[in-house]
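User: Run a structure prediction on this.
Assistant: Running it now.
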Amino acid sequence: MRVRVVCFGVLRDKLGGGEGFLDLEDGAIVADVLNVYRERVPGFSWDSIAVAVNQEYAQVGDVLRDGDEVALLPPVSGGSEGLMRVEIVDEEIRAAEIVAGVKAGSDGAVCVFDGVVRDNTRGRRTLHLDYEAYREMALEKMRGLAGEAVERFGVRDVALVHRLGRLVVGETSVLIVVASAHRGAAFDACRWLIDTLKKTVPIWKKEQFVDGAVWADGEPFPEEIAVRAGREVGSGEL
């Protein structure tokens, strides 16, 4: 079957045109269309878009029919100029693709923090790291940090991606990309993002050494969110 695909805004520019046709297997779903375009534009924040089928919003599992019109819709005007890609992933972070996807012609600087697994901690040889998170809360906090960085430092766009699960030496655990017209704002926002993430986002790291394993000491929570032990808890209270 064949569907007509239309796109707008930044997607139109990235795809080199506003419409085209796509041949799919019978029974294809919206996700199949997205998978095709993910390969054509790697590094783009596809999770930030909406999809409409025949001018009605659709979900990735909706079944398509021959002749359908599928519209790929980036965030509408009125929000941040950038797309603020924020993700928690379980697979390899493709840093080069993400950096390329953030860059724009108006940028004079792109600052990147690529946090990688090193082979030792304080002289103890590292085998691997295991990351876990309070996933839904962590993602929401990361979105808030990205938005605050744009507002506080006046940068154009932010990508903030953290990986969970087991990582070996040399793999990226967290990637922060900040795009801005000026280098000072990009440097300041990038440093603020990683420092604040480490203090406020509920993600934990277990380090596996050749001679044992330990949960890494986390940085103290800021005073405004730390639980205080000053009040006694009576019976019946938690």
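The helical segments are 9-15, 30-40, 95-102, 135-153, 183-200.
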